Amino acid sequence: MNRLGKAVVIIVALVAVAAVYVMNPNLPTPEGAVSAALYEPGELGMRRESISLTDSSRPTSANGDYAGDPARQLDGFVWYPEDAGQAPFPLIVYSHGFMSSVGEADNLAEFLVPKGYVLVAVDYPLSNGGAPGGPTVTDVINQAGDVSFIIDSMLARSMVADDELSGLIDEERIAAVGLSLGGLTTQLVTFHPSERDSRIKMAVSIAGPSAMLQSGFFDNADVPFMMIAGSSDAIVPYQDNAASIPERVDNSLLVTLDQGSHTGFAGISSTFMRWFEHPDELVCPMLVSGLERDQEEQNSILEANLAAGITATVSTPCSMESFPRAMRPGQQQMLTRLAVYAFLESSFAEESSRRQAMLQYLQQDLEAENAPDLSVTANL
After folding, report:
1. Which strands sit side by side in the sheet containing 169-179, from one edge to the other?
2. How far apart are CA 111 and CA 263, in angstroms?
3. Fewest 10 Å CB contacts: which of 170, 219, 301, 365?
């Protein structure tokens, strides 16, 4: 091979290496001793299975030029440990955000499942990015029922002797976790007076809208609740939604990520948006366009119901005058994984000593080891 040919090969190789880095960057790891130990990869491995669930008892509403359907179709995945020796495991139902998809769950699944959790997520019929008639936020109240149906389906499979999920799920350890509109879904299925599912024992809302939810709403269930939010969230503004959670919710924790954005919680942002000053600036025009359709049809995210603790309060998205430099998405996602895992372990760990240690970590070491990027406010 001549010199020119060798040079071309070297250049192609360098480009390939650079492409691999761009597409799969190394994410940060915690520096504190306790946090670093918790962040160590799980040892149980992971399997993923496609699922297709049909709830024939509830309809999918008409939406734009979509005529609707007499059933609700829920397609997605279930992730579970490859090594089942420590079964049964806690079940996590993950809910994606507006205009997003089931793939959003990958980021938490790959971290939590090898540590001993089963995680399931689906595309919600009308809020996912490819929804017929266009994605809408107004179906969120029905997504609470979807979560319950998913739980029914997973528990039923766990009872079948020859099923891949046979014996894997502990019906007494079920959590709901969600991002953005999925965070609101989580709050609804955990606390709503008529839509809540009493089987849910823990709940995590990641940047979920809550400005319309009063203290009385959260009084409907005594369930440990964590809100994780970024102080620079342009889409679900922090002050309107997250800041007062400790005052409104008993048995709650607020984890605040300093200069954290909304989009930074999504796994894709650590790959494709990590060079942006503020990832929300790129997403806001698309989000506003999607929400304008609902407004044109005079729909609101939730109907006010004062008896249920739901007001007509509106939190305006994407109203920031400027977009200052936000926390790097990789750092934001690492801290979110850490907080979610410790929170789940504080109730779901089998040994009481482990539960106590995790509760102490959440109240003390999580902030101490990760400040100033993270702060914790507790009402326990």
Report:
1. 47-55, 72-80, 118-123, 89-95, 169-179, 202-206, 225-230, 252-257, 374-379
2. 19
3. 219
What whole-number distance in Å separates Cα of residue 27 and Cα of residue 89? 27
Report pTM: 0.91
Bridge partners, residue 95, by sequence: 178
Residue 48 and residue 28: Cα distance in Å, rounded? 25
Query: 3-class SS at 94?
Result: strand
Give the C-alpha distances (Å, rounded to integers) separating 178 from 8, 283, 309: 47, 19, 21
* 295: confidence class by pLDDT, cuts 50, 70, 90: low
Proportion of the chain in helix, strand, coil states, percent, rounded to 5 = 40, 20, 40
pLDDT in tens, 3-39: 544 334 334 333 333 333 444 556 799 999 999 999 9
Band the pLDDT of 299: cuts 50, 70, 90.
low
- CA–CA gap between residue 380 and residue 245 (Å, rounded): 12
Q: How far is CA 376 from CA 35, 243, 365, in A?
A: 14, 11, 10
DSSP-based three-state secondary structure for 101: coil
Residue 79: per-residue pLDDT: 98
Report the alpha-carbon distance of residue 169 to residue 163 in Å, rounded: 12
DSSP-based three-state secondary structure for 380: coil
Q: Are 76 and 122 in contact (CB under 8 A)?
A: yes
The CA-based diameter of the chain, rounded to the nearest angstrom, is 81
Over residues 142-179, the pLDDT tens digits come to: 999 999 999 999 999 999 999 999 999 999 999 999 99
CA distance linking residue 189 with residue 182, whole number of Å: 10
Compute CA distances 77 → 53, 255, 266, whole Å. 10, 28, 17
